[in-house]
Specification:
The chain is an alpha+beta fold. It has one domain: Thiol Ester Dehydrase, Chain A (Roll), CATH 3.10.129. Helix content is 24%, strand content 35%. It has helices at 23-35, 38-43, 74-93, and strands at residues 46-51, 54-61, 97-106, 113-124, 128-136, 142-152. The chain has a 6-stranded antiparallel β-sheet. The chain is globular and about 45 Å long. The termini are far apart.
Amino acid sequence: MDPSDRVLNGGRSVREDTGTLSEEQLDDLAQYFNDEVTFSRHIGAKVEKVEPGRSVISIDVEDIHLNGAGTLHGGVYASLIDNAMGLSVLALVGVRTATIQMNVHFLGAVGGGRITCESEVLHRTRRTATAEAKVYDAESNLVALGTGAFRVFEKPGNAIV
């Protein structure tokens, strides 16, 4: 089953529960994350794909990302997971959101190469959304897993605040 067909509260699927974001707005959102979100830019995160309820973000691991043991710092995993989940939710709901809870499971060490985070919205109500993100190394090994809860603000208008 395609995860987009998952049924949400009220009998709607993720695919049916989209906000008002057009393809052009989704492209603008990806560009905004790549160019304007300062911390994402600082860690070198790049949006590879965004669609309602899903996103893919990657980082080319550099020395600045490594901890004292020479492996990827946990904060980089957490930031990447938070950004990917937040982008997935934002692309789905089309209004401002905020992370209200997040869990990260560190499953493997990475010392270099590219890491890729794939995120999808699992559940949505009017005021909250739950998302999951998985981080893979360059060899497609699962190296981190995160879940998060997001507050959905009901303010109409531009989703980027």
